[in-house]
Amino acid sequence: MSSSWPDRRRRGGGPSALERAQEARGLLQEQFFRVDQLQRDVGGTVASYAAMLPDRARSTGVVPGWKRLDDRAHAAVGDYLALLDQHDPVEELDPYRVHAATTAFEQGTAPLRGLADEMERFVDSYGAELGRLAEVRATVERRVAAAQAAVAAAEQAWHAMHDAGVDVPEADASLARARVAVRKLVEIADRLGPDAVEEPAGVVERLAGQARTLATEVPQRLATLATRIPSLGTRIDAVSTRAERTGEFMSGLRREFSFASWKDLADAEDELDAHVATARESLDRLRRLHADGETTAALTELTNVEDAVKAASDLVDAPRHRLERLRQVKSDPQQLFERARFALRDTRLLLRRGSPQPWGGRLDALAHELVALEGLLDAPHPDYWQLVTRMDRLHAGVDALVADFRASQRR
After folding, report:
1. Which residue ranges does the record annotate as region Disordered (predicted)?
2. Angle formed by the axes of helices 384-410 and 333-351, nearest 10°
3. Are 189 and 146 in contact (CB under 8 A)?
4. How far is Cα 411 from Cα 401, in angstroms, rounded to an integer?
């Protein structure tokens, strides 16, 4: 009895029909795997390139060039699978169909090899351009690493705070938010470019900074609380002493100047009394909380005291400063105008060094404002405070114009 045909050799010891078919299938599969690997590797790189360098991707041939190859690769995959469905496994084919399978495999190998070769030439052609992606990724990685370092610094401060026996719930919450944010940043980092990574990295650093500040400053504030309490009491007393003349200065404003010049300070005396009263009440609560060992509540109350003292300090000298400034302007308003005219003349000379646009228009607008300010003095009871504030804005406009002009000359 003769042996089964797949195991037979042709006379002369050459490969059998089945072996030739198996060899042809192997070559076909080799080229398919080559196309498949290039499609995945290069396709992923091109996708990242398009995402991270969108402006360059729109102006180079990388994306459209790869799309054409990628479309052909998808079609080739379909042809390859159809070929195997029709002719494989060859070991189970009727002997008369093996030769047709070999021919089909050989015919299917050539286009796959050609496509793989084109993909490799694509990489050679655009390798330098795609190499920019590595630079971008390195930039993103450095930015992410900086955000991670900020969280690590916050965690170190947080551990030091807890080792000192201090519990600050706000620091716990801030650190938890920073940890969540940096975890999300790391998850999406490979899809971000240098511009896109900036916002989430900034969020991480801001949250980490808040946590670190709380973990660092709160223990320091607790350590100095015993000395802060009497110091705040002294500051409140000092504000109260200075406030005793507030009525005198407000009386001077009311007698000498129109209501428009001091209307924003009309309630200064009552507001000042309220701030001082609030500061004293908060300071009393702070003393009790500190004595009872309620550290977290004491720090909250410390902030309340400081806010009230600052509000009182900001307000207590405002009537005096306003009265002095308005008396100075009223005694010689032309001094303000001479200073403004000099600034405008000096700026006009400076602008002659460059193009008149857009600087000339801005300067003309400032000059028109100066003319309008002269009309304020024509009123029976001039609003000197409006004159002062608008003149200050005019000088700020001149300074900004000069700064912009000089910056443009350096470019």
Report:
1. 1-21
2. 20
3. no
4. 16
DSSP assignment of 156-174 equals: HHHHHHHHTT---HHHHHH
**Model pLDDT for residues 164-178, shown as the tens digit of each residue:** 777 777 788 989 999
Please state the pTM of the whole predicted model: 0.48
| Contact (Cβ atoms closer than 8 angstroms) between residue 329 and residue 388 | yes
| Amino acid of residue 226 | A
How far apart are the C-alpha atoms of 388 and 379, rounded to whole Å? 15
CA distance 204 to 189: 13
Give CA angle at 186 (180, 38), nearest 5°. 150
Q: Quick one: CA dihedral 97, 103, 106, 109, positive or negative?
A: negative
Q: Token pair 């302007």 is at which residue?
A: 329
Give me the helices (H) in 189-267, please. Answer: 194-223, 225-243, 246-256
118 C-beta neighbours (distance < 10 Å), count = 17
8 Å CB contact between 189 and 141: yes
Mean pLDDT, all residues of the chain = 88
Give dist(CA 53, CA 51) in Å, integer.
Answer: 6
Distance separating alpha carbons of residues 115 and 178, to the nearest angstrom: 48
CB 132 within 8 A of CB 56: yes
Task: Report DSSP state, residue 93.
Answer: S
Distance of CA 103 to the CA centre of its chain: 61
The Cβ of residue 156 has, within 10 Å, a number of other Cβ atoms equal to 13
- Kindly give the interhelix angle for 194-223 and 225-243, rounded to the nearest 10 degrees: 90
67, 225, 226, 279, 292 from 287: Cα distances, Å: 73, 10, 9, 12, 9
Name residue, tokens 């060899």: 23
Q: How many residues does the chain have?
A: 411
Identify the DSSP state of 381: S
pLDDT tier for residue 14 given thresholds of 50, 70 and 90: low
The 3-state DSSP composition of the chain as helix, strand, coil percent (nearest 5) reads 85, 0, 15
Q: Give 302: exposed, middle or buried? Use CB within 10 Å, 0-12, 13-18, 19+.
A: buried
Report pLDDT for 40.
92
